[in-house]
Amino acid sequence: MSYSQKALDFLEQGKLNEFDENYELALKNDSDDLIYSLAEELYSLGFSDKSKEIYIKMLSKYPDEDELRTNLADILIGEGHVDNALSYLSEIKPTSDAYVQSLMVQADLYQTQGMFEVSTEKLLEAKKIDPEESVITFALAELYFVMGNFNKAIPLYLNLIKQGITNISAVNLVERIGIAYANDGKFDHAIGYLEQIKTIDMTPDVKFETAFTYLQLKNYAKSIEIFKDLRDTDSQYATLYPYLANALSAQHKDDEALKVAQEGLSVDEYNERLYVIAAKLSLKLADEEQAERYLRKGISIDPEDISIALELSNLLVKQERYDENIDLINSYMKDDQIDPQFYWNLASSYDHEDDLVNANKYYLAAIPYFNEMPSFLKTAALFFREYGNLQQTISLLNKYVSLVPSDDEMAMLLEEYR
Question: Domain limits of the chain?
Answer without folding.
Answer: 132-196, 370-418
